[in-house]
Amino acid sequence: SLQFAHIFSARTLICLQNTLKESRDNVRHHYDTAMLLGETVHFIIRCVIPSVYILIITVGLLGNITLVKIFITTSAMRSVPNIFISSLAVGDLLLLVTCVPVDAFRYFYEEWIFGTVACKMIPVIQLTSVGVSVFTLTALSADRHKAIVNPMDIQTSSAVFWTCLKAITIWVVSVLLAIPEAVFSQVVHMPDKNMTFTACVPYPLSNEMHPKIHSIMIFLVYFLIPLSIISVYYYHIAKTLIKSAHDMPGEISEHSKRQTETRKRLAKIVLVFVGLFALCWLPNHVLYMYRSFNYRQIDSSLSHLIITLVARVLSFSSSCVNPFALYLLSESFRRHFNNQLLCRQRKYQEPIVNSCLAAGSAPLSHILSYSSGS
């Protein structure tokens, strides 16, 4: 179907089948080339795709479940940025356990086999997950902007509550924006030469304007507009940090230095998250718009298949990279992560005492805090 998260339409499935068919049809004239092409496509479908998808699911589940577990079991880590990051992880888990397996199965079956209910639900789940990711990144950028540009704003005791409310609102908005996918998605039977092809499509096929409008709206709402807002936030963040570096007096307290470094480190972490999201999803958006504006043309080449696979793998990889980016950027989170993996039996007391940490690592909230270094 033309479900957004993997951007793999019924016509693309036909393309894949045509690639195999053409390789067989051309055997008489180009035997060696056709056999090589057919074997290459067969190898990609039967070996490469399952291996890559299993790796994405395994790594994504490991990283995101561990991140959420750290947040749930460590009360000191329930700061504003951590709440947003945990919401990101939950959205990624939703995509990993539902959409990625369904997408993988579609390479092994020529038709849509999951029925009408799945045809309507899978696109909603995919678009909800993407919405949660990009809107949460926007909220995180706004939070970092507030902490750096307006550092005198004091975190109130209700900050965590309001942050949870914002995270819930993001989920509600993401679901509401995805509901049209369930309304218009349908199972259709498409003719393909001498056979009928069953596919799941997200809009009526009677008008060529539908795919164009759909792809443009998806690109604007879930990519261009949020990233433009984030860019404005980070422009002001960079401007403030540069100005503060020039205006900083020669003698400054150690506490102020720590605050400044913490702000920079937090802003860097969020910026890395945003960059990874943009890198992972841009190829998919470009490919989807290309197909939408060339809807009647079917590209059955091996190169198009490979480009499609790379774009899809990148988009799904966005659901597993954040925990490991955080692992590389935050020493404190790295310690908690290692101890979650190595020490299954852990007992927490108030104040939090980690029986597995002989040296006593600092909670992640010291790195990902709302205010400047609290």
From TrEMBL:
Quote a single Gene Ontology cellular component term. plasma membrane
For this chain, the family text in UniProt reads: Belongs to the G-protein coupled receptor 1 family.
Q: Does the keyword Transmembrane apply?
A: yes
Report domain G-protein coupled receptors family 1 profile positions.
63-326
Its keywords, alphabetically, are: Cell membrane, Disulfide bond, G-protein coupled receptor, Glycoprotein, Lipoprotein, Membrane, Palmitate, Phosphoprotein, Receptor, Transducer, Transmembrane, Transmembrane helix
Where found? Cell membrane
Does NAD count among this protein's keywords?
A: no
Topology relative to the membrane: Multi-pass membrane protein
Q: What is its main location?
A: membrane
Matching entries from InterPro entries are given as: Bombsn_rcpt-like, GPCR_Rhodpsn, GPCR_Rhodpsn_7TM
According to UniProt, the name of this protein is Neuromedin-B receptor
User: Which SUPFAM superfamilies does the record associate with it?
Assistant: Family A G protein-coupled receptor-like (SSF81321)
> Transmembrane ranges?
43-72, 84-109, 121-140, 160-179, 213-235, 266-284, 304-329
What GO MF annotations does this protein's record show?
neuropeptide receptor activity
A Pfam family this chain is assigned to: 7tm_1
